[in-house]
Amino acid sequence: MRCLIATDAFAPQINGVVRTLTSLVDELRARGHEVLVVSPDDFRTLPLPTYPEIRLSLAGAGRLKRIVETFDPQAIHIATEGPIGLATRRAAITLGRAFTTSFHTRFPEYLSRRLPVPDALSYGYLRWFHAAASACLVPTEAVRRDLERRGFRGLVTWTRGVDAQQFHPRDRIDLGLPGPIFLTVSRIAPEKNLEAFLSLDLPGSKVVVGDGPQLASLKRRFPNVRFLGRRTGDALARLYASADVFVFPSKTDTFGIVLIESLACGTPVAAYPEPGPLDVLAGTKAGCISQDLRVACLAALTLDRRDALARSADFTWSACADIFLAAIDRPSNTGREASLSLSPAAVG
Where in the chain do CATH 3.40.50.2000 domains reside? Predict the structure, then answer.
């Protein structure tokens, strides 16, 4: 099968969306599918204000139309709702091509933290964007239920995976810090709610891995926290395995691949009762969920690391690819939604 995946987020960016898409592409190609990724590398870009490492592509529907006609894909998947996603959506509708979409990020909540934009307006745009898709893939059941209440249709729960060859239990490394070690791995930005973790009164040490616009200010505010910067690959896996508890303070992430990477290294998780942690941890002994993050952190210290590892086995990139391939085989929605495909104003 020839599959075109259009995304505004791709390597060298490091985030959950990129991790999902690169792992999916690797799995599809390993199965013999031909995959073309249309990404910011294919266009001129401008830096996103406050996020200069994220580039906004100057993508037009005409250019995307030519790419689609040349590659002639049997399936089109639009992974993001940015300029590339929007241009691909217009091109697909113009050509009468069916397509699927995916919902990765709660942009309305992110946006409202920076600008006085009502969530209802942002969700109206997203509802319009996904309406013409034959299926919209979402990361968890909790997100699916939330979007369904907001009027989204054609939703398919699309799990995530973890590379068990990369992330697995290892000998702990000495970080030169008093234990226990509470670790978080995150983009250092306001929407990640890191202050909720860093301000906790906890025994031992807090360690933060990641980079982002809030890094300098958080270093100044929390001088007793060890900030290690960006880590990937084996270096990141060793840090997961060397922590006593992985702390996930975000209330806006839709999943959090870092959750299952930590579990795969045998490290239990502490988190708020939000969509990603609820779907990954609820009803298991792999982590602790509480509205009081300190309570969750201290309770997670008592958990058996073998239970964390066992839970991670439920998440594979093979299963992720299976769901994706089943979704792109769904009947087209394009004709039924044509009246909704011209303007966001069509759905309010």
Answer: 2-161+318-346, 181-315
User: Which residue ranges in the chain fall short of pLDDT 70?
Assistant: 48-55, 106-118, 330-348
φ, ψ (nearest 5 deg) of residue 211: -140, 165
- The CATH class of the 2-161+318-346 domain is alpha beta
State the pLDDT at residue 332: 59
pLDDT in tens, 247-300: 999 998 889 999 999 999 999 999 999 989 999 999 999 999 999 999 999 999
Question: Which letter does DSSP use for residue 243 in this model?
Answer: -
pTM of structure: 0.86
Residues β-bridged to residue 152: none
Q: Which fold has domain 181-315?
A: Rossmann fold (3.40.50)
SS3 289: strand
| pLDDT (0 to 100) of residue 121 | 78
Give 154's Cβ-side CA count (13 Å radius).
25
CB 37 within 8 A of CB 10: yes
* Residue pair 266/309 in contact by the 8 Å Cβ criterion: yes
User: How far apart, in whole angstroms, are the C-alpha atoms of residue 205 and residue 183?
Assistant: 8
CA 245 to CA 202: how far, in whole Å? 11
Q: Residue 249: is the preceding peptide bond cis (ω within 30°)?
A: no
